[in-house]
Amino acid sequence: MSTTQIEKNGTQARITVQGDLTVAVARELRPQLQQALNEGCTAVVFDLGRAGMVDSSGIGLLIAVHNSLKSKGGTLKVEKVSAEIMQLFKTMRLNRHFPVEAQ
Fold this sequence. Notes:
The protein contains 3 helices and 5 strands. It is of the alpha/beta class and 103 residues long.
């Protein structure tokens, strides 16, 4: 089972994912992130230090957030990713679109 925590601080939101970033988590996070963006959030950090895996819906969520932020001059950063998730991001070349940092 995955849980997420969203901490907002001014124009920044930090999302900590514990478990897998899958379709169920993406479905839960999408409206919360949209609300944060509508409220003026311009920087989003995803902490995947405790994420076991990221599926296609999780990747889709990251891309959607990145695109929304980019259109507003904002930034997305993904940090503390495992070696396996880093390899996935590199294979999909996501690390060329937004910063991805390993654990």
